Amino acid sequence: MFLSRYERMIARRYLLPGKGEGFIFLVAGISLSAVMLGVAALVIVMSVMNGFRAELFDKIVGLNGHAVIQGYGGQLRDWREIAAQARTTPGVTEATPLIEQPLFSSYNGRAEPVLLRGLAPADLLGNKEVRAGVTSGDLRSITPGSNRIAIGSRLAQALGADVGSQVSLISPQGQTTPFGTVPRIVSYTVGAIFEVGVYDYDKAYVLMPLADAQTLLMLGDSVGVIELRTTDADRVQQILAPVAQKIGRRAVLSDWRQLNSQLFEALEVERVAMFTVLSIIIVVAVFNILSSLIMLVRAKTRDIAILRTMGATRSGLLRIFVTVGTTIGVLGMLAGLMLGFVFLAFRQNVVVVVQMLTGQNLWDPQIRFLTELPSKPNPVEIIVIALMALVLSFLATLYPAFKAANTDPVQVLRYE
């Protein structure tokens, strides 16, 4: 839309407050602020939701892989053959045998449920999430026969344990006596403490060498799970279809969608619902633009009639008022993007300040899974939000613009 010189001058004049037009300017300012807040709210919420999903996905997949092969009864006796078959499948990058078993831990009279994971030393050191999250101790000290384990930071806090502490692991699979099965209790030295950022994992995970886990659980040479990683997590079902055929009924193959379906489906539903609800803010702002333009047209009726008598065309008046309303929407959209990005940059500081002012824990890791408020702006979504604000602002200008363009100068000047 190209404006002539006089059209730009008049549009600029209508955007600035004139004598006796303070109320119209106030309504236009409120409209701009409403667009700004609506765009900022959408950018912030969608970025946080995307960040939450991405962070949770990275943590879960980083520890559990894209899929797992689980043996019946918790044991895979021919795991070497199955792992070899999986590694030769196109698209499979890793096939890691491990043991995963819920147990109890005890230290200084405190007891906590734990999830034991037994891994080969190379796989333990090669896990990026665990290696990057070590807060104290050294993973390299956890070797077969060293009687050392690594525990999550929240578990260490709950037990009151530190590096060097002797933590007892209690397994129900113990010796059978005439009085029943006696639980097997073995003490291990804490060699490292890690924090991956997911509360449930940091609160429960205990990592040890695979050979030590087999000894503790009396599994012999068996493992419980083979963890698989692929080149594309979104195509995991297609990639692992040959693996499922090869293992047949010897084991069960489950991918990350099946293992965490309820969690990710709930996140997706919440994401769509939040986008829909927060879009209403922009719609309300657009109605404010509509009302401010209608008031402006009513206030400038005599000016419009004079412009018409001086040779202004209907299309020219249409462009002027469309420009005025769209400019309010553009300014509000740009201010909203800036506000949203500033909030996201200091989001954790904002959470801390609000918690200090209200005295409430707004981001409880026990409820939110993650220890910090995540963020991941999606450029495509941000463009969609900006375009939605612009399109709605443009549509809101059409009625008052056509109303101004259809003003009859003869009727107005006769009674004015």
**Any idea what the shape is?**
elongated
Distance between the amino and carboxyl termini: 32 Å
Mean pLDDT: 82
**Tally of DSSP helical segments:** 17
Query: Total number of β-strand segments?
Result: 10
Q: Radius of gyration, rounded?
A: 32 Å
Domain count: the total is 2
Give the ordered list of helices and strands: HHEHEEHHEEHEEHEHEHEHHHHHHHH
Give the strand order, joined by hyphens, for the main sheet.
Answer: 2-3-8-5-7-6
How does the helix and strand content classify structurally?
alpha+beta
Proportion of helical residues: 55-70%
Tell me the fraction of residues in β-strands, as a range.
15-25%
Main sheet makeup: 6 strands, mixed, barrel
Question: Could you provide a short overview of the structure?
Answer:
This protein has helices at 5-15, 22-64, 79-87, 121-126, 128-132, 153-159, 199-204, 210-217, 236-247, 256-259, 261-299, 301-309, 314-345, 347-358, 365-368, 379-405, 409-415, and strands spanning 67-71, 92-107, 110-119, 134-137, 148-152, 166-177, 180-194, 205-209, 225-230, 251-255. It is α+β, with helices and mostly antiparallel strands.
What does this structure look like?
Strands 2-3-8-5-7-6 form a six-stranded mixed barrel. The protein is elongated. The protein is of the alpha+beta class. The chain folds into two domains: 5-58 and 263-415, no CATH class; 77-223, no CATH class. Helix 13 runs antiparallel to helix 16 (379-405). The protein is built from 17 helices and ten strands.
